[in-house]
């Protein structure tokens, strides 16, 4: 086997050609590297007939920082295996992996060129009625069928071991749960909200709840998570949406994936206070987002409930009171993790364009303060909030 080396465009072309029958004998291939992500190389390999595939290669360091931040290339295995597993469970909404090469830490996958990144679409005010139903179904299928409700004890433990993913989890552990709550050099704070950010460093009640959420992230292997369900990992078009980029996948709390997504929809909602000047247009988009958040939880919880009732193989977990309690706990966890996402995307290392692309500094600060306020409320009140309408009421009453 060839030793690992960073791909050139020629290497990526050869890799794609070797591992797919798509291009044919005499097709002329071209290749460009166009990754805009933080960590990896992403190539598009195309032939002269318009057929194309994506080659994604993990670098032995984080691309956005450079060689001073080494990072295991085993993350390509995690990404490929999570995507393959999720695709089996939810083929419609998971990108197709055609080949994975362990030595080169490279994945060959379908090119979603007929799709666009959800974050960009939501920022420009586009709306998709199928967003929440499809993502609810993705989350219910992938999370239920990798949980203890569906797997036997020994099999589940073997799976947990395969997907430990310590290095990538550590990034989440730091960026989500540690940095925003102290004066960390990695934080990235818009100067206009400096004093609001500093309040987080002294808020012991909030820090205690974040500690609980972090402890659960560390020690609650409920299901095989995607691990990074933000709106930059979702491709969408008028008919469908698909998840990519599962390198943060591991066995963790189900509410983490659900909450990351809810958090990203909320960030878009808050961003539009600064992105959309016209009141009616903004209101209309924000109504759409509220409706999607509501649908997402309703449909996810209904499907998960039905799966527990009809598919559970483990007799002691068939207890309906237990199942009801389990769903309620996913809800509270999801709200807590959504709150963490709001806060870390506002003051932590990795921001989102929903807030950062607000050009007026005062308006941006207003949206950012709302994100911190809502994040705090969701984290602190997550166990008292008993349904999604109460969450939307909190959202509408932000100052
Ligand atoms: P990273 O893990 O480095 O963040 P991503 O998987 O998020 O990398 O990919 C970075 C970018 O590459 C995406 O934002 C998208 O523009 C492009 N990309 C990745 N996978 C695909 C794909 N299957 N089809 C089309 N574009 C893709
Ligand atoms: Mg990415």
From TrEMBL:
Its EC number is 2.7.1.100. It catalyses: 5-(methylsulfanyl)-D-ribose + ATP = 5-(methylsulfanyl)-alpha-D-ribose 1-phosphate + ADP + H(+). The keyword ATP-binding applies. Residues 31-262 form the Aminoglycoside phosphotransferase domain. Keywords: Amino-acid biosynthesis, ATP-binding, Kinase, Methionine biosynthesis, Nucleotide-binding, Transferase. SUPFAM superfamilies: Protein kinase-like (PK-like) (SSF56112). Substrate binds at residues 228, 344. Catalyzes the phosphorylation of methylthioribose into methylthioribose-1-phosphate. This is Methylthioribose kinase. It comes from Rheinheimera aquimaris. The lineage of its organism: Bacteria, Pseudomonadati, Pseudomonadota, Gammaproteobacteria, Chromatiales.
């Amino acid at each position: 086997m060839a030793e690992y080396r960073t791909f050139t465009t020629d290497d990526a072309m050869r890799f794609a050609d070797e591992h797919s029958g798509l291009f044919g004998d005499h097709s002329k291939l071209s290749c460009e590297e166009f990754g805009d992500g933080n960590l990896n190389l992403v190539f598009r390999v195309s032939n002269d007939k318009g057929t194309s595939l994506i080659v994604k290669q993990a670098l032995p360091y984080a691309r956005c920082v450079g060689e001073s931040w080494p990072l295991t290339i085993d993350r390509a295995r995690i990404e490929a295996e999570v995507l393959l597993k999720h695709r089996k469970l939810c083929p419609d909404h998971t990108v197709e992996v055609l080949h994975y090469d362990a030595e080169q830490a490279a994945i060959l996958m379908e090119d979603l060129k007929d799709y666009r990144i959800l974050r960009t679409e939501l920022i420009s005010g586009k709306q998709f009625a199928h967003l929440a139903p499809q993502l609810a179904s993705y989350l219910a299928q992938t999370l239920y069928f990798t949980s203890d409700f569906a797997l036997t004890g020994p099999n589940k433990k073997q799976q947990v071991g395969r997907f430990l993913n310590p290095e990538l989890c550590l990034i989440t552990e730091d960026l989500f749960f540690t940095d925003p709550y102290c004066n960390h050099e990695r934080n990235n704070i818009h100067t206009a909200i400096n004093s609001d950010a500093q309040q987080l460093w002294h808020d012991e009640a909030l820090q205690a709840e974040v500690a609980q959420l972090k402890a659960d992230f560390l020690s609650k292997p409920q299901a095989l998570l995607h691990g990074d369900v933000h709106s930059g990992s979702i491709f969408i078009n008028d008919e469908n949406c698909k998840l990519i980029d599962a390198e943060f996948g591991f066995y963790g709390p189900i509410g983490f994936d659900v909450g990351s997504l809810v958090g990203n929809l909320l960030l878009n909602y808050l961003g539009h206070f600064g992105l959309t000047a016209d009141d009616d247009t903004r209101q209309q988009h924000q109504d759409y987002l509220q409706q999607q958040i509501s649908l997402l939880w309703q449909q996810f919880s209904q499907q998960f409930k039905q799966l527990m009732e009809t598919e559970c193989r483990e007799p002691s977990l068939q207890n309906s009171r237990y199942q009801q309690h389990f769903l309620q706990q996913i809800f509270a966890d999801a709200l807590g993790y959504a709150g963490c996402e709001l806060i870390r995307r506002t003051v932590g290392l990795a921001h989102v364009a929903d807030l950062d692309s607000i050009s007026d500094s005062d308006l941006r600060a207003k949206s950012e303060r709302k994100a911190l306020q809502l994040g705090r409320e969701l984290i602190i009140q997550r166990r008292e909030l008993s349904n999604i309408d109460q969450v939307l009421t909190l959202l509408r009453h932000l100052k």
